[in-house]
Amino acid sequence: MKITNIKSTTVMIPLEAPLRHSNGAHWGRFVRTIVEVETDEGITGFGEMGGGGESAEVAFAGLKPYLLGHDPFQLEEMRFKICNPTASLYNNRTQLHAAIEFACLDIMGKKLGVPVHQLLGGKVRDSVSFASYLFYRLPNERTGEGEIRTVEQLIEHCRELKEKHGFTTHKLKGGVFHPDYELECYRALGDAFPRDRLRFDPNAALSVEDSIRFGQAIEGLNNDYFEDPTWGLNGMRRVRSMVRIPTATNTVVVNFEQLAANILNPAVDVILLDTTFWGGIRPCVKAAGVCETFQLGVAVHSSGELGIQLASMLHMGAVVPNLAFAADAHYHQLQDDILEGGKMKYENGAIRVPDGPGLGIQVSRDKIEQYAEMYREFGGYPYDRDPSRPDWFPLVPNERWADHRVKSI
């Protein structure tokens, strides 16, 4: 079998409302690049990649000279063709490789008539649990609804998600408002849902000292972990030495060199594996094995998925024995998906692992065209800017907080 073509299409899927984070916002929509890898046997595999509000079509077109004629079963050879570690110093293609790997695994599974999780060693669970992913939100630009700024709005939103989807773990994305106010919000979540698990992630916006102060103030809550409160392995190490909550990251341990450094001199207790950031499903499974060996916790990170990447997360989560935490997903914030029949369904806070051949999903070409047209109409957006604060940009650590008392427009 040989790869005969690589096609990519940029789509835009609307969100319920713009999602705020420490670096800016998702401006009411996700921009994702859908990749199709075609073969000489008529089997097509699907992959997906984000890009911070931007298209990656040109980057994928640049991979054709490397991959046309390549056997999609030769994944290790492909890894070095695209991501040779010294060549990548000049052009890091890790996330591009991830999308192509998704598609090649999809092809392999379809060819052999087995799901991807079977290619990875077989599943140890039939479904993957997820956390509610709570964001401070700007109002929907069309309806004016969906804002989350006050404690009351946050609690009500969490309650609605819990009732609708069955979540029993809740993650609050912080780094938007002053830490004292976000501490009030987080404590309110603990009071409102005392039996549920919690996790807080300010995207490394806090100083080491503010991270320690915040972490010590929440030690009595039912925390899973304290995710990326500050930047850098050394900063996280200092926080870890002063706060009695496990630390977690998806920013400072995202490759095997950083994982080795963290094992030799621990700064992070729980590694959040992202099938895009790590370069594919297989690197995540490999990293999970290293974590199992050294007794590091493992969770699944979300980088803003549609159904293709969500399927990659489900297959990865299905085969990792040491997945002890609910996974993250932005998925419930989407209004639609590019899958036949729309979005996958949550059942008691979990999504079933697909058992069909390959990734086990059916991509709708009509929906790809519908949402490609939306991208052509609206274009991209700068992920690292906040539309409600056009002259603002973040520092690390940040000190330029949004004002929670001001209703956003």
From TrEMBL:
Keywords, sorted A to Z: Metal-binding
Enzyme Commission number(s) from the entry: 4.2.1.40
Enzyme class of the recorded protein, top EC level: lyase
Superkingdom assignment: Bacteria
A matching Pfam family: MR_MLE_C
Catalytic reaction annotation: D-glucarate = 5-dehydro-4-deoxy-D-glucarate + H2O
PANTHER family: D-GALACTONATE DEHYDRATASE-RELATED (PTHR48080), GLUCARATE DEHYDRATASE (PTHR48080:SF4)
Protein name according to UniProt: glucarate dehydratase
Organism: Cohnella silvisoli
